[in-house]
Amino acid sequence: MSRQASVLVIAAGLLLVTVARPADVNAVQSLQPTSEQRAEYERGRAYQRIVILLQDPSVYFIAALRSRFDDDLMAIESEPDLPSVSAAKMKPAFETVRASLRTGNPSSISPDLAGANYFEPYLTGGSPPNAANWWLVEAGMAEVDLRAAAGNQFLLTMAILHPTWLANHLNDGGDLVSLVPISDLAGKKLPALQSLQKLGQQSEEQTASLDEMTRYEGDLLQNLDNAFPESAYPAITYPPGLLGDARLGVAWATIGELAQQPRLLWQPESQEFIDDFFRQLGNILGDSQARSTLSQARTLLAVGSSPTEEAVKNLLGVEIATLLYSHLPKARTDVIFLGFDAAQAVWETNTKDADEANFDRDWVSTNDSLDQFVPGLSNQRRELGEVKSGDWIGLIGKAQAVVNAILR
After folding, report:
1. 319-331 pLDDT, tens per residue?
2. In whole angstroms, what is the distance from residue 99 CA to residue 105 CA?
3. Rounded to whole angstroms, how far apart are CA atoms 362 and 330?
4. Distant-in-sequence, close-in-space partners of 44: CB < 8 Å, separation ≥ 6
5. Is 344 strand, coil or helix?
6. Is the peptide bond preceding residue 234 cis, with omega within 30 degrees of 0?
7. What is the distance between the alpha carbons of residues 40 and 37, in angstroms, rounded to a whole number?
8. Residue 374 — very low, low, confident or very high, per pLDDT cuts 50/70/90?
9. DSSP for residue 130
10. CB hemisphere CA count around 154 (13 angstroms)
11. pTM
12. pLDDT over 90 at 167, yes or no
């Protein structure tokens, strides 16, 4: 990646300069952001999710998340507060992202964006046209980035960029300025960034300790969580009957895919979604033995966890499938696997596993048990069945259409 300071950059040589002000815990707890402030904050969260996508484009092939990534891309392309030079460069660069995602070929992403570490157009100077709005965008980016670190000291150190912006621009925070915690970091060089300076360079600046920095980030994250609570995403509901079972299958596949993407898995909306899934599954299965297995599976997906591929396959795959087959009639398990395999077929366009993709395609295209409950599903399944083996563009489009029909 060519790390252009005006577009996507890696942090270097920042100072955290906080303004002395009295602590007011009650002020933080009583904050009620307006809908407009929430919208700016969500803009920042969207931008940081795009950074996650650029770091690992496979996240785009999680069927239940793709529409939000499309919205995120549209938001970042139309960002009103970018310097004009950045905006001019970004649109054609992001066109390469869209093209690569359509074809399932990440190698075609522009080198200006591939593997990007941060989105920070004002790192080296300049001011956004609307500083108050941009302050909230930075807050949203900070929340997603800090969550993605999940307590990892190195990742937390590298995630200091957006919290630094907030602290350096307190005057732009308006009535939300108390979100930034009082800290002992005023004027201190950040430890991970020291290593980016030339060897042997002398500096009289104090270096912040890891404890100071971690405490600051943790306090900031807590304040952001209190002011901007997140609800489950994807927001899948489970109506009674076979349609609810099919959606459960989509959610089951989504959870297995999220387990391989810790930066998304550790986000609060993902954790809420996982809780909803296990709550629904527990209600369906009912008995204490099943609940014990589900509790173990849920622990595997907790914030800070890094489940192995084998553990995901066994506990989230084989064990849950065994519970379903032993507790539910075939008519229900067939529909659950209809949703599961439709979502998995989208995922297989990333892994390029032709055998698995063909299996998923064939199961969905021949399973008509949900057709009477979902208008148009019969035609969508038929079109999926007509996709040739190895036609990854055709597969992702037709399989996604089946998933969308189930989730509508």
Report:
1. 999 999 999 999 9
2. 8
3. 18
4. 136, 137, 138, 139, 140, 141, 142, 143, 144, 162
5. helix
6. yes
7. 5
8. very high
9. S
10. 1
11. 0.86
12. no
